[in-house]
Amino acid sequence: MSLLDVDNLSVKHGVLIALDGVRLRVDEGQIVGLIGPNGAGKTTFIDTVTGFTRATNGQITFDGRDITRAPGHQRSLAGLVRTFQSLELFDDMTVLDNLAVSTQSPSLWATITDALWPKSHDLSHAHRVLDLLDLWPVADRLPTELSNGQRHVVALGRALASSPRLVLLDEPAAGLDPTETAELAATLRKLPAIGTSVLVVDHDMSLIMNVCDTVHVLDFGKVVASGAPDQVRHNPKVIAAYLGRPPAPGEHADER
Ligand SMILES: Nc1ncnc2c1ncn2[C@@H]1O[C@H](COP(=O)(O)OP(=O)(O)O)[C@@H](O)[C@H]1O
Ligand SMILES: [Mg+2]
Hints:
This protein has helices at about 40-50, 70-75, 95-105, 110-115, 125-130, 150-160, 180-190, 205-210, 230-235, 235-245, and strands at about 5-15, 15-25, 30-35, 55-60, 65, 80, 165-170, 195-200, 215-220, 220-225. It is of the alpha/beta class. The strands form two sheets. It has a six-stranded mixed beta sheet, sandwiched between helices.
């Protein structure tokens, strides 16, 4: 049984068909890539799986439960967590506090103790994320004081702070330099071992090809190719989707 099983998923924005019969699975321990040109429907896919957008048709199963109509907070409690292209950090809180607010237990007891003693909540999860992502040097800084690369790492940290079963990352390498992207790749590779499977959307082919077990390619809301990174990169449909024309002999999708 797959951890995430998306079957025949369609989403309409008004008359626009943003997703059209998408089938995609993520198994426990996998890192799965989702790529495609701008406007292909990648963010809509993450929105719909995490409950920010409603499916028009199809079924989303997570950990054996049908969550197609479940509200977003139930999905995140079940261990399905996302990041945003726009990062969505709390700019007036330190890095540590950004992580700490994302780890808090939703139990009634935690709510009461937080209200009575605001600093009493358990920081051990947040500390583990600081360890994992090497964020201790900036733990007391505000996100606005960090580089773009560090802000991306904090956004990833917020998603990981609740120890999710599956994290869906929307363009985590956007604006990162090659060194930062290589560090991100190394971090993503560690996640399955600590119990977090990954679905990653990105335009950076080196990241996708280096970390993913399986890659799916979206074009105009449809999956046009799926397979191991090497198979997908040589697929003529993928090259055509990226370049908008048939590939020249010997041309690859990552040579845009
Ligand atoms: N809330 C929305 N309302 C209307 N159209 C939308 C909305 N969100 C996305 N779209 C449209 O849906 C299509 C897919 O967008 P998106 O999922 O953001 O693509 P990607 O992330 O692959 O660039 C695009 O044509 C986009 O303009
Ligand atoms: Mg997007």
